[in-house]
Amino acid sequence: MITETAKGIYINGKWTSTENNKTFDIVNPATNEKIAEVPYGSGRDMKLAIEAADKAFTTWSQYTARERSSYLYKAYQLMLDRKEELASILTQEQGKPLSESRGEIDFAASFLLWFAEEANRSYGEVIPASKKNKRLMVVPQPVGVVGAITPWNFPSAMVTRKVAPALAAGCTVVLKPAEQTPLSAIEIVKIFNEVGLPEGVLNIVTGDPQSIGKEMMDNNIVRHVTFTGSTKVGKHLMKESANTVKKLSLELGGHAPLIVFEDANIDLAVDQAIASKYRNAGQTCICTNRIFVHSNIEELFLEKLENKVKQMKIGNGTEEGTEIGPLINEEALRKVKTQVGDAIEKGADLRTGGETWEGPGGYFYKPTILANVSHSMSIMSEETFGPVVPIVSFTDDKEVVKEANNTNYGLAAFLFTTNIERAISTMEKLEYGIVGINDVFPGTAEAPFGGIKESGMGKEGSHEGLKEFLEMKYVSLSLS
Ligand code: ADP
């Protein structure tokens, strides 16, 4: 048990409970044991949070960029000081191996540092006018109150990737973390509290997604909603945003292809395919979902991949050396089993895995490789979000790009080749917001992360990430 009743609702600088002191349980997915209880807030709590954020906006938006930056910088330092404690909480609520959780805390902190720096660079423009007596300017201003909705697969980094740029821009925030993993988000709010962030600037409401989400979308005080999660919920939020014409940043699902050309460094491609597919037990939106290998190297690639995957250590993320932790819940496990069952029934060749693992009682699935996969199998069109990879062979460059693009998703794609011309021409044809060339780890605070097509809109990280939370006010001055 992490705490008896974890704090969960923080409004206007105070931790509160909700109506009837209603709570819900947080469960460790590795053991299926309850680790904490958190308030089950509703739209009523979100409304209070929005009103607090609105009040705080009046003063926070008037702080100098340097003043805002100083809070982010202090939060960055405190987060790193607490790395071990935060990583342990993350692993307990989410399941990923401790080494990955430590990496996530570093990643999460990097957004605080980056936007502490970017806060000072929200420049405007002076436009040369076509009339002598006119002076034209563009003045960046914070959009207002921001609603942030975060997912369970990166419970810490997705919070800072949204909250840091919003605060840097001068916005105030109401945050709703995923119901599976609110504890890491709560810790981040505690950090901001400790560094003295003024009351009402950052508020959090845990609880009922539908009711909290509805208030966030209906309330016209909220001017921008930033969301990471499923395409299904993203589409729902898009519809809901129409009534009050809110700005949106959406990071949605993915179906990443990884293409291994004949001239690739095969050992590198194998290691990176494993890192991309199996980290977080396959539960990241840029995880490789389909591997396309040139037919001339397919057997060699498969052999090397299979040998390494068979040796991966599955277990509780708290045990050092664990490489594959549990899936987030029973529903996630069911989805993976269904996809693998469908593929095998339709003729896929199971090279390794393909079954659950009992372990300490949680939702484990063995790392799985499927060869001889065809397009009629659901795994080739649906996002997997589990440690399973289908392998398809190809012979023609043009054909493989067509196959890779044959999806409504457009988040990330990866390719392995030692031929620079092939790398560039393939990159240009891939319909994805992010392309990794011999690199499956493109995510970093200084670069723009975001998808196209049904993978979403807007960018997070980089100077683009700050712009999402700024309105460019155009000013025309007429001299007499
Ligand atoms: P997943 O299927 O991976 O859990 P979701 O899109 O359901 O992804 O969840 C991502 C985030 O969206 C979570 O914080 C979840 O609580 C939230 N969410 C789910 N449904 C709604 C909704 N109707 N309105 C607002 N937020 C929602």
How would you describe what is shown here?
- InterPro entries: Ald_DH/histidinol_DH (IPR016161), Ald_DH_C (IPR016163), Ald_DH_CS_CYS (IPR016160), Ald_DH_N (IPR016162), Aldehyde_DH_dom (IPR015590), Aldehyde_DH_Superfamily (IPR050740).
- Keywords: Oxidoreductase.
- It comes from Alteribacillus iranensis.
- This is Succinate-semialdehyde dehydrogenase / glutarate-semialdehyde dehydrogenase.
- One of its GO terms (molecular function) is succinate-semialdehyde dehydrogenase (NAD+) activity.
- This protein has about 475 residues and is of the alpha/beta class.
- The chain folds into 2 domains: about 1-250 and about 455-475, Aldehyde Dehydrogenase, Chain A, domain 1 (3-Layer(aba) Sandwich); about 255-435, 3-Layer(aba) Sandwich (Aldehyde Dehydrogenase, Chain A, domain 2).
- It contains 14 helices and 22 strands.
- It has helices spanning about 45-60, 65-80, 85-95, 100-120, 155-170, 180-195, 210-220, 230-240, 265-280, 300-310, 330-345, 395-405, 420-430, 460-465; strands at about 10, 15, 25-30, 35-40, 125, 135-140, 145-150, 170-175, 200-205, 220-230, 245-250, 255-260, 290-295, 350, 355, 365, 370, 390-395, 410-415, 435, 455, 470-480.
- A 7-stranded mixed beta sheet has the order 14-17-18-13-12-19-20, sandwiched between helices. Strands 9-8-7-10-11-21 form a 6-stranded mixed beta sheet, with helices on both faces.
- Helix 5 (about 155-170) links the parallel strand 7 (about 145-150) and strand 8.
- Helix 1 crosses helix 7, helix 2 (about 65-80) runs antiparallel to helix 4 and helix 3 (about 85-95) packs across helix 4 (about 100-120).
- The radius of gyration is 23 Å and the shape is globular.
- The structure holds adenosine-5'-diphosphate.
- Adenosine-5'-diphosphate binds near residues 151 and 236.
